[in-house]
């Protein structure tokens, strides 16, 4: 779709149509990703009693990993 757009003459109606087509494809892709993440989060919520988020200090973890 990018190739189709890049081959159109700037300012033409066909370029505008190609731009809109590309835009719709990206919107669809973003909606699919958002939907998947929403379904995944709802699955975790339903099937687990407790969900914990931990704030890890990656720098400290890397420093300790080298000593092993």
Helix content: over 70%
Sum up the overall morphology in one term.
elongated
Number of helices: 3
Largest sheet: none
For the termini, the CA-CA separation is 50 Å
SSE series: HHH
Number of strands: 0
Structural class: mainly alpha
* Low-confidence sequence ranges: none
Provide the β-strand percentage band.
under 5%
Overall pLDDT = 89
Radius of gyration: 23 Å
Descriptive account of the structure:
By secondary structure, this protein is mainly alpha-helical. It has one domain. Helices cover 75% and strands 0% of the residues. It is built from three helices and no strands. The chain has helices at residues 2-7, 13-47, 58-67. The longest helix has 35 residues, at 13-47. The model has no long low-confidence stretch (mean pLDDT 89).
What descriptive keywords fit this protein?
single chain; 68 residues; mainly alpha; elongated
Draw up the topology in text:
Layout lengths: L1 H6 L5 H35 L10 H10 L1
Summarize the model shown.
By secondary structure, the chain is mostly helical. The chain has helices at residues 2-7, 13-47, 58-67. The longest helix has 35 residues, at 13-47.
């Amino acid at each position: 779709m990018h190739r189709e757009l890049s081959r159109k003459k700037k300012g033409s109606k066909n370029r505008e149509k190609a731009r809109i087509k590309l835009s719709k494809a990206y919107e669809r892709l973003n909606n699919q990703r958002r939907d998947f993440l929403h379904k995944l989060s709802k699955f975790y919520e339903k099937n687990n009693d407790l969900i914990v988020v931990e704030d890890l200090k990656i720098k400290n973890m890397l420093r300790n990993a080298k000593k092993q």
